[in-house]
Amino acid sequence: MDRKQIWQIVGLLVVIGAIVALFVWFVDLQAVGEVLRTAVPTHLLLASILLILGLLFYAMRWRLLLGNKPTLLQTFHASNIGHAGNIIVPARAGEAMRIVVLGRSEAVSYTEATSSFVVERLFEQLMRLLALVAAIAVGAGIELSPSSILGGVAVLVGAFAAIQWLVRRQEQVLVRWPVRLAKLPRITEAGARRTLTDLLDNLTAVSDPKQLAIVMGSSLLAWVCFWGFFYVTLLALGEGFPPDERLAVSLGALALSPPSAPTQPGIFHASVVVPLAAVGFDEIALTAYAVLLHILEMVWMIGLALWGLVQSGLSVSAMLQREDAATDQQ
C-alpha cells in the first residue's frame, strides 16, 4: 500500500473509533443489554429470511432497469457488495463498488450501471417517502382520506409523465443537455452524452405501463419484506414496545434507515434512535432495537458480500482500482 492508502485506513479507523466512543459514552449499555437478552431466536431467524428476500427483490428490480441483461445472481452479488461497502466504508463508497462489480461482469457497461442506479434511486426515494407518510399517519392516528390517496396517485402519475416526456424528447435532450452539463466541473460533453443516452435507455425500459407496473411491483415486494424484517425484529424484543407503538416504530425506522441504504455503526443508530426518541418513544428500547437491526444487517450483508466477492473473483484492492478506471471512462 502507498502512503495515501495507509492514511485513508488510519482515518477510517479513527472515525470508527470516535463513533464507538460516542456510542459508549451516551448509551446506557447495561440497560440496552438487558433488553437485548430478551430477544427471541425464532423471530430473529424469520426476520433474517425476510431481509434476504427483500434483498433478492431489490436486485430483481435493478436487473429489470438494466433490461434483464445481467443475470439475477450477478445483480444480487453486486448489490450485496455495495451494501457491505456502505456499512464498512464512509461516504457511501458502496454505491460505486456495486457499479464496478456489475460493470466488470461485462453484461453491461459502467455507464449503463451508473445510469440505472440513478433511476433506481428515484424508485427508492418514492418507497422511502411512502414509508415515512405511513409512519406519520399511523403514529398520529391519522386516517387516510380520499384526498390523500388521490395526492399519492397524483405523485405517481406526475413521475410517469416526466419519464414519458424525457423518452419522447430523447433527441432534444441529447442535443441540448450535454452542452449545458459540460459547463460543470469535471464533466465532458462526450461523457455527459454517453451517460444521458444510457439513462434514457433505462427510462425507456420503464416508460411502458406494463414494465413500469412490474418495476413498481418489485419495489413494493422488496419494501414489504424490508418492513417485515423491521417489524419481526421489533417483535423479537418482546415487551420492549407496547402493541400500539409497534407499527409506527417499525415504519418510522424503515423510512429513516432502510436496508437498501445501510450505514456505518453509530450513524445507523443515531438516524433511528434520535428522531423517534424525539417524538416520545422509549430511548432504551429504541437503542436496543437499532443495535439488533444493525447486527442482523451487518451479519447478512457482509456475509453475502463475501460470497459475491468469491463468486466474482474480485479482491477489495482490485475493485478500488477498477472504481478509478470506471470514473475515468465516464
Question: SSE order in H/E notation?
Answer: HHHHHHHHHHHHHH
User: Low-confidence stretches at least 5 residues in length (pLDDT < 50)?
Assistant: 326-330
Report the major sheet: none
Task: Give me the count of strands.
Answer: 0
Number of helices: 14
Tally of separate domains: 1
Can you characterise this structure?
The chain is an all-alpha fold and 330 residues long. It contains 14 helices and no strands. The chain has helices spanning 3-26, 29-36, 41-65, 72-88, 93-104, 110-140, 146-168, 170-181, 189-207, 209-235, 243-256, 267-278, 283-312, 316-329. The longest helix is centred in the middle third of the chain and has 31 residues, at 110-140. The two termini are 26 Å apart.
Tell me briefly what this model is.
It contains 14 helices and no strands. It has helices spanning 3-26, 29-36, 41-65, 72-88, 93-104, 110-140, 146-168, 170-181, 189-207, 209-235, 243-256, 267-278, 283-312, 316-329.
Which structural traits does this protein have?
globular; disordered C terminus; mainly alpha; 81% helix; 330 residues
Secondary-structure topology with pairs:
Layout: H1 3-26, H2 29-36, H3 41-65, H4 72-88, H5 93-104, H6 110-140, H7 146-168, H8 170-181, H9 189-207, H10 209-235, H11 243-256, H12 267-278, H13 283-312, H14 316-329
Helix pairs in contact: 2-13, 3-4, 3-10, 4-5, 4-13, 5-6, 5-14, 6-9, 6-11, 7-9, 8-9, 10-11, 11-12, 12-13
